[in-house]
Design a protein that fits this description.
single chain; 326 residues; alpha/beta; Rossmann fold; eight-stranded mixed beta sheet; 13 helices
């Protein structure tokens, strides 16, 4: 039986217009399926376009950046065709997002309880008391101690871990069908990170929601994701089920990310592997493969031609000429 696809992204292209009249492509032809009730990972280094992809799905792009091409189908609705007013009815209610930095995601001048309560009042016709009761229950569900007391707290009075739980509560309080989590455990210690991931899996199980997990941390991917998309320089370079990706990574960039994972049993005097070079600027992309300047397997063809994304079997997609020629 095939999985039900909750969100289907096809040919997504996001651009930044230039003053001279040209444009810089930030997200280039991304295809992405998010099955209902599953967790899909979007992984890559900082500057690869992951967060821009997430904001595109929520239609939260800063002007003048805009979606130039592609479709974002959520159920039977193409989100790219909606007006801003129509999109506001979907945000929070059906699709919610946990933003990367909890301190900047919360309003410092309003108590956290009121901020989460407003999300309910904005989308549903309930009394302020009922909304408050639901917020306190959600605070309790996400593991916030003394929820009645925390309801009255301001963001600066809470630790990073508690602020992140507040953001999760805000995203979850309306029981969305899709949760987009943009680096939800960044800057948290490993103990709190484990608690947050366990919480997300628990809430997913109880609510049956889908999750798009955006991260640079392959440990998070291994813990929570069902399938993975590896992103580099604005495009998907590899896609596979989680087990397949970890046991059989095929793109040189994915191989590099795997080798860079710290090993508990590694030698103490052994240097941690790093991928040489940096992600190319969106305004100055290589003509051929975007990873060729950092790739130890690169040949002349890689510098001149852009490789297609090919299926090497069982839905395992790779954007590399090594796979095309095999």
């Amino acid at each position: 039986m095939s999985e039900e696809i909750l969100m289907k992204v096809t040919g997504l292209k996001v651009v930044l217009p230039e003053k001279e009249g040209g444009e810089t492509v930030i997200v280039d032809g991304v295809n992405l399926d998010i099955p209902r009730g599953k967790t899909v990972g979007l992984v890559g280094e900082s500057g690869c376009g992951k967060s821009m992809t997430a904001r595109s799905l929520m239609r939260l792009l800063d002007t003048p950046i805009y979606i130039k091409e592609g479709a974002i189908e959520f159920g039977e609705t193409n989100l790219t065709a909606l007006t801003e007013k129509e999109m506001r009815r979907i945000r929070g209610q059906k699709i919610s997002m946990i933003f990367q930095e909890p301190m900047t995601a919360l309003n410092p001048s309003i108590t956290v309880g009121k901020q989460v309560r407003e999300a309910i009042l904005l989308h549903q016709k309930v009394s302020k008391k009922e909304a408050k009761d639901r917020v306190i229950k959600m605070f309790r569900d996400v593991g916030i101690p003394d929820p009645e007391l925390r309801y009255k707290a301001y963001p600066h009075q809470l630790s990073g871990g508690l602020r992140q739980r507040i953001c999760i509560a805000m995203a979850m309080v309306l029981e969305p069908e899709l949760l987009i989590a943009d680096e939800p455990t960044t800057a948290l210690d490993v103990t709190v990170e484990a608690q947050i991931l366990a919480l997300m899996k628990q809430l997913q199980s109880s609510h049956g929601m889908s999750i798009l997990m955006i991260t640079h941390n392959l440990g998070v991917v291994a813990d929570i994701c069902d399938e993975v998309n590896v992103m580099y320089a604005g495009e998907i370079v590899e896609h596979a089920q989680k087990t397949e990706l970890f046991h059989n990574p095929r793109h040189p960039y994915t191989l590099g990310l795997m080798k860079a994972i710290p090993r508990v049993r590694g030698k103490m005097d052994e240097e941690l592997y790093t991928i040489q070079g940096t992600v190319p600027s969106f305004s100055d992309m290589p003509k051929g493969c975007r990873f060729c300047e950092r790739c130890s397997f690169a040949e002349e063809r890689c510098k001149a031609e852009h490789p297609p994304l090919v299926d090497i079997g069982n839905g395992h997609l790779v954007r590399c000429f090594r796979e095309v020629s095999e």
